[in-house]
Amino acid sequence: MTIFGSAIDVRPLFPRERRAMLDLLRALSPADWAKPTVCPGWNVHDVTGHVLNDYMRRLSGSRDGYGGAIFADDETLPAYLTRTNEEFVRATRQLSPRLLIELLDDLGVRLDAVWGARDLAAPADLNVSWAATDVDSPAWLDLGREYTEFWVHQQQVRDAVSRPGATQPDLMAPVVDVFARALPYTLRALERPEGTVVQLEVTGPAGGRWGAVRRDGRWRMAVPGAEPAARVSMDQDAFWRLATRGITVEQARARSEPGGDPELTAAMTTLLAIVA
């Protein structure tokens, strides 16, 4: 097992998640498209345009080998993504909701074909920086990250228009599972004796338990131990929102139950599974 834990295969879920998103978008009123989302400065139309950007970016890069926009001088990855995402969203404001839906419907099928041809054990096209910065990511984690991206943006739209959904365990559980793979990187600054184990429990139908162990000088994903040095329990809604900063660390801590080593539990409740 690598530092990232056991592989998961989210490829069968992309069409189902997209179908739920498209059904949602087709049911929106013109006023719904203008409603603000949790993404600063972006309304529902903008978030939808951003998802289209994700589709096009991965088709261009993973299918066509096209490098895309280049980094500006001394530009960090977060700054680069903020700039290029904003540029694309600004351009998609020229597109009608109907055209956005049609493009997502067409390009999503093309992207499914790209994912379907991938060897999950091969190196990722794009490393998952919130899981590790010094070890290359496997393709399965890259695809898992993309699935969480699409699912989270769908939930942001649903929140904005007060439409619940897409939280069925089979659709949501992989999101929670992938986000839990950020646990070793979250703990990276804390040294502990060899064999020290922590446990993360996410409650709810889509939840589960994950562990990390200190081994060979770094934290690694592991099967949760019987007696962890630290443990945190949090409900599934709080967890995904914490991981994407839909809620603050303080709000997440108010919705969690820590136990054991307070420094470790404090770090665990800062888990972040996006580039920020």
UniProtKB/TrEMBL annotation:
Residues 16-157 form the Mycothiol-dependent maleylpyruvate isomerase metal-binding domain. This is Maleylpyruvate isomerase family mycothiol-dependent enzyme. Pfam families: MDMPI_N (PF11716). Keywords: Isomerase. GO terms for molecular function: isomerase activity; metal ion binding.
